[in-house]
Inverse folding.
């Protein structure tokens, strides 16, 4: 899962943190949690799509 | 080993199609985004097959890289 | 040639497929074929340039 | 080996935060740019911890990847 | 230091060379030297920040 | 092994200079694009040499990374 965690950190930082401040504020934290859920949704969808294609 | 390769492919597709299809992550994947991701993966595979086959044909004809 | 095929796929998808649809239409296929030819032209040119430089 | 991993992390952070914080390299790192880089590294680590902990919780609950 | 040199070359080419010409002109060379110094300043700052965080 | 390294360099240069010089792939590489690619590769090598030499000088003087 290391690769997944690394990619999510990079992608969600880019989407959620525009100007890095002195701490993660609550809206940034919410955005990161949501982004993480969507990234995993997308991962599952990609996995299903690819699986059905190569069968 | 094959499973690792499969997972590596999914990471690559997901990273690529995320950048293509996700503007701002929302409360769920809406159907438009789902369609975009599915089509992105399918067309990426099509593109890869098209290029691989065409490249194989070129090699047979002895052309391509010099 | 694996690295070349992987890079061409990524670069030519980016150049030729703006909104991925339900199939590759004929203009997208033509664009991909042309993009692939140019990518290999460029590869050959880079190879010649680099070779003459390091000799 | 641990030292190599530490160095690899610094290369990754520096590359990422350079793109985020440096517009045009100047005669020195001004204080605004320094603050941007420091905050960028700190928030990147925070983001990584937040995601890793939340992911661990999901796994415990048996959710997540299917 | 190989990784550092590779990254600096890429980052500083991007910052300093807008349209590659028939040689590196003096303003491009100055820009690259300055960019290289700032990249190392940044590397040192990132290193200090990360070190103090993981202690 | 040396040949693999040479090929890896070409892949890297080609990927980098493609993004720099190709807007929209056309029916052939026109002379302007060819010049752009050649200059891009040459200047990339110059930049790399400049940085490597300057870095070596810094190390000799004992400066640089702390």
């Amino acid at each position: 899962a290391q690769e997944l965690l690394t990619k999510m950190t990079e992608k969600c930082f880019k989407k959620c943190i525009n100007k890095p401040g002195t701490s993660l504020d609550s809206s940034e934290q919410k955005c990161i949690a949501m982004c993480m859920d969507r990234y995993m949704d997308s991962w599952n969808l990609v996995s299903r799509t690819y699986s059905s294609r190569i069968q | 080993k094959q499973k690792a390769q499969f997972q590596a492919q999914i990471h690559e597709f997901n990273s690529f199609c995320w950048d293509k299809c996700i503007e701002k992550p929302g409360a769920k994947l809406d159907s438009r985004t789902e369609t975009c991701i599915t089509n992105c993966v399918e067309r990426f595979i099509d593109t890869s097959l098209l290029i691989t086959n065409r490249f194989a044909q070129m090699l047979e004809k002895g052309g391509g890289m010099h």
Chains E and C do not touch (no CB pair under 8 Å). The two ends of chain E are 24 Å apart (CA to CA).
